[in-house]
Every structure is written in structure tokens, then in C-alpha cells.
Design a protein that fits this description.
By secondary structure, this protein is α/β, with parallel strands linked by helices. Helices cover 49% and strands 11% of the residues. Bound molecules: adenosine-5'-triphosphate.
Length: 593
């Protein structure tokens, strides 16, 4: 077929007499055998083209080939009238097409399509993990248009989506069709990869319009900030659909916190933290009715499963018992996964589909990551000031390990004349809301925060994350630095460390390396720390010296001591510093920087 096709192209415009009408294949062979200089050129061309055609066939899928053939046969029909050869050519093509159709039954075509979709899954690093009880995994979607053609999603919703986003992200490609088919799901996808829209779009589609039967969807988030952000996204995607998305503001005011059966039930979607919902359920009679819930989404699932005083596992049991609709769909999303969550999900949602995008618990490759040894606490402050002096590009998020330290750093930086604020759980809700708004609007350039803000919060265009205090775990690291490098944008993350931060240093260095970053070899060769040490550091942050500028006088004293130490070391005398490690580290920091 290829030779015929080529021949037709090369011979375009030439006239053939009847006696030249040999079968095309034979004619080409004859031409090759007795080639004149002119025909040599033709043959050479023919070979070039032949090569190209062959190459394109190799790279295309069988389905694409069939489509190609159909297009070619249509094209050639216009040329056919020009010569008899072309007519016979076209006949032959039609025969071959019919033959192909015979060779490829509809199932085979379907199979080819599946192969193509699987190739796309690999390309987007979508890894589906099959389990015994999970249903058939729906095909991925490649564009948002498919939502209306394949799933009957309303044009209103599709146009809302397309006014926000042009194409689905990998997690959306796979999660949206799964949830549109109302299958339960457990998905793990990198920070900033669009998980929120992945669950909101199917929920908005299924709920369609407001109804007076109370909450039909429940989204559980670890913090109120994240709940409000999810509500905002729901309002944006559900514009003009009139669905009512509610965040519980208060549980103390009886008038404002009655969501019981008798309360009018003018709500559709509830976004909340587990504590609030459990509190309302624990009232007698319960102040919230969840009997009509068809969708339960657990966002940041592994955070909610972290052991705390009010273990979320118990809370979740309470919540799921209250959502007693047997046909509800349960979806769990997170950027990181822990064994605990996997075990819980396997036991409680056995029929879920499980998939992940890219490396599980990996850092986003778009973030340029750096580990910076500062020697001591005062070294950190110097390093931060140095970064400011060199020019910071706001907005910048700075993570510290406690509220006290947030306040200490704030006090230092505000006197440097920086446009800085803090957010932590001791601030009132109004203060927290104002700070988040100020940061979003660019009024605050540097936001100092605790672990509270490490999960889920989507500040547009954060340029830099500074881990002023070393994160308590690799998972915390992934989430903290995931506040930058979101939705395909690049970002930077700098993590300060001192000699007190060795427990997770190796694993974080490995993580940076696997995301394509550079780390010194010695970090990768460190001994791995024990599980006990890792658990301890998660439970209790290391004790650190107060964040404060060391007055010049004190600094001189420290330097004198340092000189004394180095002299006495030279004389092999016991070091003063070895008896006072914090001072030793302070001086080390000064020298380093
Ligand atoms: N299809 C898309 N195309 C472009 N941007 C998108 C798309 N979907 C979502 N986004 C944007 O990507 C950003 C991150 O989305 P989102 O907050 O849902 O991420 P996430 O995966 O939940 O992150 P995290 O794990 O940190 O919670 C948001 O600003 C969102 O508007």
C-alpha cells in the first residue's frame, strides 16, 4: 500500500497509456531495475519518503493507523478521476481497509484504545493499584469536553470549569471519572496538583441543584482555613448552580449552629473540620443531621489520621455512623500516604479504587530545594537577614516549630522594617482570616506560620518557603515546601538546619535528590535514624534557643570564648564549650556565616 501511495504521489500529473498499465507493484520493480538518471532521482525520493512513512507508522497506535487509512482513502478519491491507475489504487485501498476492518473487530479497536489510554496513564505517572474488591477502573479523561460528551455533565458546569482551567491535571484525569461513576476512591497526588477540583467537580455534577433535604455532601478538612478555601473553590466551580456550600463558623452559638432535621435543611454541601462535626453530633439531641449524605470526602487524609488527643479514627467512625446512607461514596485524598491510612481504608472502604500520581510521598520537582547549615539558632537569624539583604521575592512563607517561636521571629523581623505577620492557632478566627486575606492580597510579604498552614493551603504564587525550623518529619517537609511550586509554577524552598536536626536529615536529603535536587554526598551517607528517634521528634520538637538578635557585646564575648576554645584545643586542654553545647553551636554559626 505504501509503495502504491508513493507511486501515486510521484507520478502525479504524468499520463499513462493503457499498455503501461501494469500492476503497480510490478511497475515499480521494473522501474527500479532499469533506472535512468531521472528515474534514479525519483527512486531516491521514493526511498526517503518511504522511510518517513514507515517511521510515522511505527510511532502511531493501531487505532491511529486505521483512522489515517480512512482519511487517506477519502483524500485519494478526489485524485482518482485523474487516472485509471489511481482508480485501481483507491479500489485496492478500499479493499485493504475492508480487510483491516475484518482483521480488527470492534473489540480489538476498543482494546487498542485501552492500550492508548494506558500509555497516557504511564506518561502522566498515574498508577492504579487493583485490589480484589475494587470495581472496573473507568478510562481517564483527556479534556474537560469529555465530561459533557461521555458523562452528561451540564454545559453550565463544564463552562465554569473551563473558565478556570484549560485541561485536567493527572489526578483529575483519573479521579473525576471514578467519582462520576460514584465509585469510592483513595488517591495520592502531589501537593498543588488540583485534588480539590478533582472531588468538587463530580460532587457538583451529582448534586445538580439545591434541594431541601439537608447536607448531601460532606468534606472533612484538617483546618478551618482549608475548609474555607475549599468552600471558595466550590463556589467558583459551581457558579450559577445555586448549590449552598457551608462552613461551620461556630459551634457555641445555639442559634447559628443548628443543622438538625428541623432546622430548615437549606444546605447542600458541608465543609468542616472533624472536631466541629463531632461536637454537634455529641449534643443531645444531635445538632446536625447527616442521614442524607451521599458523598464523604476526607481531604488530607493522612493528617487526619495522625495520632492526636482526639484520635481522628474514632471521630471518623462517629461521622461515618451518622452518615448512614448505605450507598454513599467515600473519597480520600492526600499528597502523602501512611501505612495507618492504607490499613484503615482497606478495612473500612474495601471496594475503593486506589491510585497515585508519581512517587508516593515525593516532593514536587518544580520546587528548587536547598538545605542550609546555619550552625546555631542565631546563625538562622543571620542567614535569614542575609537572604533579605540579597533580595527576597515575596510572597514568602516561613515555618517555625511553635507559636512562641513564631512570635519571637515576628518580633525580630518587624523591627527590621519588613512587611511581616504571623498565623497560628492562638490567634482569633478573625485575626487568622485577616492575615490569610492580607497575604493573598499581597499586603503581607512574609508570613510566619506554624505547622497549621503546612497542609492544603493554596496561596497563589508563593515564591519561597523557608523552613526556619527543621520539619518534624519528611511528610511534614513535603507538605511545607508544597506551598510553593503549585499548579505547574516554579518555586524555591530553603531549609535551615543545625546539629540538632540530624534525625530526618538523611531522609530529607534523599527526598531532595529523588526530586532532582543536589545535596552533598555526606548527607546521603549519614546513618539512618531509628523509628523511635523519628517518632520522638514528631511528638516533641527539639528544644531550641530563643530567636533573638545577639547584642554586639554578647557577640564579642562569644567570639572571645571561641578564640579561647580554639587556643585551649590547640594545647589539648578540655574545652569550655563542650560543657555548654548551645554556646558552642552559636559560635559555630557565627563562624559559618
Ligand atoms: N486543571 C487545572 N489546571 C490548572 N490549575 C489547576 C487545575 N486544577 C486546579 N488548579 C489550581 O492548582 C492549584 C492547586 O490546587 P489544589 O489546592 O486543589 O491542590 P492540592 O492538590 O489539593 O494541593 P495540596 O496537596 O497542597 O492540598 C489551585 O490554585 C487550583 O486553582
Amino acid at each position: 500500500m505504501i509503495a502504491n501511495d508513493l507511486f501515486r504521489k510521484l507520478s502525479c500529473g504524468a499520463k499513462f497509456s493503457n499498455k503501461n498499465r501494469l500492476p503497480v507493484k510490478r511497475k515499480l520493480e521494473n522501474d527500479n531495475a532499469a533506472c535512468l538518471p531521472k528515474s534514479k532521482v525519483c527512486i531516491k525520493k521514493e526511498k526517503d519518503t518511504d522511510y518517513k512513512v514507515n517511521a510515522s507508522i511505527v510511532t502511531k497506535s493501531p487505532v491511529a493507523d486505521i483512522e489515517d487509512m480512512q482519511i487517506k482513502s477519502e483524500d485519494s478519491s478526489s485524485e482518482d478521476s485523474e487516472s485509471d491507475v489511481n482508480k485501481s489504487d483507491s479500489n485496492q485501498e478500499r479493499k485493504q481497509l475492508a480487510q483491516q476492518k475484518k482483521i480488527l473487530p470492534p473489540e480489538k479497536i476498543e482494546l487498542n484504545n485501552l492500550l492508548r489510554l494506558n500509555r497516557l496513564r504511564n506518561q502522566h505517572k498515574i498508577h492504579v493499584k487493583k485490589s480484589r474488591h475494587s470495581p472496573k477502573v473507568p478510562n481517564i479523561i483527556e479534556s474537560f469536553d469529555q465530561l459533557s460528551t461521555d458523562y452528561g455533565v451540564s454545559s453550565r458546569l463544564v463552562s465554569n470549569i473551563m473558565s478556570c482551567y484549560s485541561a485536567p491535571t493527572p489526578v483529575q484525569m483519573q479521579a473525576i471519572p471514578i467519582l462520576l461513576k460514584t465509585h469510592s476512591l483513595h488517591a495520592c497526588a502531589p501537593t498543588g496538583s488540583g485534588k480539590t477540583a478533582a472531588f468538587l467537580i463530580p460532587i457538583l455534577h451529582h448534586l445538580k441543584k439545591p434541594m431541601k433535604c439537608g447536607f448531601r455532601a460532606l468534606i472533612v478538612c484538617p483546618t478551618r482555613e482549608l475548609a474555607k478555601q475549599t468552600q471558595r473553590e466550590a463556589l467558583r466551580l459551581g457558579e450559577e448552580m445555586n448549590l449552598r456550600t457551608h462552613v461551620i463558623q461556630t459551634v457555641d452559638d445555639p442559634k447559628k449552629s443548628d443543622y438538625s432535621f428541623a432546622s430548615g435543611r437549606n444546605y447542600d454541601i458541608l465543609v468542616t473540620t472533624p472536631n466541629r462535626i463531632c461536637y454537634l453530633l455529641s449534643q443531645s439531641p444531635p445538632k446536625i443531621d447527616l442521614t442524607n449524605i451521599q458523598w464523604v470526602v476526607i481531604d488530607e487524609a493522612d493528617k487526619l489520621f495522625e495520632d492526636s488527643k482526639n484520635s481522628f479514627r474514632d471521630q471518623l467512625d462517629t461521622v461515618l455512623n451518622a452518615c448512614n446512607n448505605p450507598s454513599k461514596t467515600i473519597a480520600l485524598f492526600s499528597a502523602t500516604q501512611t501505612r495507618d491510612v492504607n490499613l484503615w481504608v482497606a478495612k473500612n472502604v474495601p471496594n475503593r479504587i486506589r491510585f497515585s500520581i508519581g512517587l508516593i510521598n515525593g516532593a514536587v520537582e518544580l520546587v528548587e530545594q536547598k538545605l542550609l547549615f546555619t550552625g546555631s539558632e542565631s546563625g538562622k537569624l543571620l542567614a535569614f537577614r542575609e537572604m533579605v539583604a540579597q533580595g527576597l521575592h515575596p510572597p514568602v512563607l516561613v515555618f517555625v516549630q511553635s507559636k512562641d517561636r513564631a512570635q519571637q521571629l515576628f518580633t525580630e523581623l518587624i523591627y527590621d522594617g519588613l512587611n511581616v505577620d504571623i498565623i497560628h492557632s492562638d490567634r482569633t478566627q478573625r485575626e487568622r482570616d485577616n492575615v490569610v486575606r492580607g497575604f493573598r492580597e499581597g499586603k503581607i510579604w512574609i508570613l510566619i506560620c506554624t505547622e497549621l498552614m503546612s497542609r492544603g493551603i493554596d496561596f497563589k504564587g508563593v515564591n519561597l518557603v523557608v523552613n526556619y525550623d527543621f520539619p518534624p518529619s519528611t511528610i511534614s517537609y513535603v507538605h511545607r515546601i508544597g506551598r510553593t511550586g503549585r499548579a505547574g509554577r516554579p518555586g524555591k524552598a530553603v531549609t535551615f538546619f543545625t546539629k540538632d536536626d540530624t534525625v530526618n536529615l538523611k531522609s530529607i536529603a534523599q527526598l531532595i535528590k529523588s526530586a532532582g535536587g543536589e545535596v552533598p554526598d555526606y548527607m546521603l551517607q549519614l546513618h539512618g535514624s531509628s523509628k523511635k528517634a523519628r517518632d520522638n521528634i514528631k511528638q516533641k520538637a527539639p528544644k531550641r534557643a530563643t530567636i533573638r538578635t545577639i547584642p554586639t557585646f554578647e557577640l564579642q564575648q562569644l567570639q572571645r570564648k571561641k578564640r579561647f576554645v580554639s587556643k585551649s584545643k590547640g594545647k589539648n586542654k578540655p574545652s569550655m564549650v563542650s560543657r555548654n553545647s548551645s554556646k558552642k553551636s552559636a559560635s559555630a554559626g557565627q563562624s559559618k556565616l
